Amino acid sequence: MVRDRKIGVAMDFSKSSKIALKWAIDNLADKGDTLYIIHIKSGAVDEAHNLLWSKSGSLMNKYNVKTDIEVLDMLDTGSRQKEVNIVTKLYRGDAREKLCEAVEDLKLDSLVMGKQRTWHHPKDTVGKFD
Questions:
Q1: Would you say residue 1 has pLDDT above 80?
Q2: Scanning 71, 82, 95, 123, which has its CA 20 to 30 A from the CA of 28?
Q3: Considering just the CA atoms, what is the radius of gyration of the chain in Å?
Q4: Which of residues 104 and 120 earns the better pLDDT score?
Q5: CA distances from 6 to 64, 94, 118 (A)
Q6: Which SUPFAM superfamilies match (predicted)?
Q7: Where are the alpha helices (DSSP H) in 28-127?
């Protein structure tokens, strides 16, 4: 059965976003769905540059987005085995704002994200559990 759903995966190439991508391919994606890989580069740019960035998925090298072989392998395998379409969308700006914009612009049925990276110093927990 062809579903034609639009599934977004927020990708920052961290371990947790790769796990989220694998989970989306294994558990959500079905034949005919479109899997949007959404990558956001932070930093301010002029509006014309921002518009160009968000409209094209072919500018990865020009804008210094590193190619990740593990991600490409997952996408290749998923597209062949699950028969899903893969689209990469690149945005520039605040991640929270751009993810919300992507959900609206792409009319996503779902958005899958890895967990936020947090770091705790061992000294932060000393004496707090006594």
A1: no
A2: 95
A3: 17
A4: 104
A5: 27, 22, 29
A6: Adenine nucleotide alpha hydrolases-like
A7: 47-55, 69-82, 95-106
Residue, of 32 and 120, whose pLDDT is higher: 32
Instruction: Count CB atoms within 10 A of the CB of residue 29.
Output: 24
Name the average pLDDT for the chain: 81
pLDDT above 90 as % of the chain: 56
Which residue in the block uniquely carries the two structure tokens 């959500």?
28
Q: What domains does the chain contain, in order, with CATH numbers?
A: 6-125 (3.40.50.620)
- Token code pair at residue 57: 């998925």
State the first-to-last Cα distance of the chain, in angstroms, to the nearest integer: 56
Query: At a CB cut-off of 8 Å and minimum separation 6, what does 123 contact?
Result: none
Q: How far is CA 111 from the centre of its chain?
A: 9
C-alpha 33/C-alpha 35 separation (Å) is 6
